[in-house]
Amino acid sequence: MAAPKKGRRAPASQGHPGRTLILVLIAMAALVGGMFYSNHLTPRLGIDLAGGTSFTLAAQNQPGKPNAINETNMNTAAGIMERRVNGLGVSEAEVQTQGTGHIIVNIPKGTDAKQARQQVGTTAQLAFRPVLTTAAGAKTPEPKPSPSQSGKGGEKATGGKGSQQGASPSPSASSTTQGRAVTDALKKPSAPPSASASDKPSTPPTPPVPGGADIPPALQKQFAALDCSTKESLAQANERAAGTKPSDPVVACKQDGSQKYVLGPVGVEGTDVKDAKAVFDSQQGQGWIVQMDFTSNGGKKFADITGKLAAKAQPQNQFAIVLDGSVVSDPRVSERLNGGNATISGGFTQQSAEDLGNMLSYGALPLSFKIDDETTVTAALGGEQLQAGLIAGAIGLALVIVYLVAYYRGLALVALASLGVSAILTYTIMTLLGPTIGFALNLPAVCGAIVAIGITADSFIVYFERIRDEIREGRSLRPAVERGWPRARRTILVSDFVSFLAAAVLFIVTVGKVQGFAFTLGLTTLLDVVVVFLFTKPLMTLLARRKFFASGHPWSGLDPKRLGARPPLRRRRTAPTQTKEA
Q1: What gap in Å lies between CA 416 and CA 183, rounded to an integer?
Q2: Distance (Å, rounded) from C-alpha 434 to C-alpha 579?
Q3: DSSP letter assigned to residue 285
Q4: Which of helix, strand or coil describes residue 370?
Q5: Which of 46, 79, 125, 447 is the most buried if burial means most Cβ atoms within 10 Å?
Q6: What spatial distance separates the first Cα and last Cα of the chain, rounded to whole Å?
Q7: Is the pTM for the entire model greater than 0.70?
Q8: 467 versus 367: which is more confidently predicted?
Q9: What is the rounded CA–CA span in Å between residue 559 and residue 410?
Q10: What pLDDT, in 10s, does the model give residues 123-143?
Q11: What three-state secondary structure class fits 440?
């Protein structure tokens, strides 16, 4: 006789369903704890539900580009602004053009208005220019004849190592690695003292030109008159520098006003930057920096310019990283850099580094803008619509509960418990997504959450009907729960996959508020799979062991008589026939 086959080991959900339920409860407790730890107990609301701030930006004419304000550039600028302030497309910031020269930006309440203003108002025109000369940021004073300006006294005043132009910096003053230039804002190139100009009081003061740099006299005069020491003069200098053609040299100020520069034509443009991101540099103690990756063409340009600068003396072995006319940093170069990337440092905070990386990644605006108007938007209309939507959702949920109780009776408890778990997971995740990715709950997103109630309830119904089918075939509850699960699982996965695919396509091809609906629908669809697999199925396995459900109580929803179950097939035993002996 053949040995009887050993029964297959029960799956984990059948053998140890309690462990799976405990894991779900731990996950729920962790999410709720994360809400309290982050001090965010409610979801971040969109502008239609919470109000916010509205900016009106007016496009400005560009120097040398009389026809720059056109429909193409305005639409491009609006798209870049939306990507900057909207991130993944779920923060509910609204950007739209108005007329021929204005853009309206609506920022929901809870968003840092100052940060948003910087994101939409900064042009983010990036350029790498070689440094021709540099000096302290204050305006060069006019010389006044005095006895001290002649004779030995003057020679003594200009003496010392500090007056040596083009002196090589100390090794610690610069740091370069293969493929990346690391700037150091705290270690500035030594500026020649203004006293060196006092040896010749009869001639106009001009800034020293290290290494024999060929600077036109007109540009030298601008450099001497340039003042970076006050906020007003710094803003004016940045505006003038930003309007200079890339092929022309320019005088510019450092971001903090401590230095001023004469810069050569642009060597590498910001359009050659492929990606930029904020990175914390703990190895060299730079703190927060912005790491940039160039395109293939930009990498070649960067290698060429660093190769030329490496052969020159201080300060002409430096290049200035210029953002909107302001010098962010001025790294020294000691060798040709072929790696195709570079870093910007300069006392960044995490937020400022992330903002700069964000602006450089999404591209520079084709136009410059000024904020014409800034107003506060109320949420009165959205609040009324939200109230009506919540009432409609409550009515729909109540009808679902009535249907479940009337048709499935005791099984309705399983469905309601699963809906409760799904609601808790959805609420906590939406709340935590607010401070992490900027997710904002708007009216379409609320509609997506309401639609998800039907999707989740449909998954329970599919599973319950599979169990009932097995009971109608004459099986008891415990085998019915396990045999009905594989068939129900396939149906649930296919259904949720179709819903998630529709949500993904809708999220990709749409913009604005519709993306909130698609995002919420996709999120709740994924949570439906998690809840059915990790909560509903293990809970049914546990309840199948209880007498109330296993015995088919009339109020359990699994009464074989009410379901029209067929009696189990039994083979009749036939008595062995006896043969009479002849």
Answers
A1: 60
A2: 87
A3: S
A4: strand
A5: 46
A6: 34
A7: no
A8: 467
A9: 10
A10: 667 788 999 988 887 766 554
A11: coil
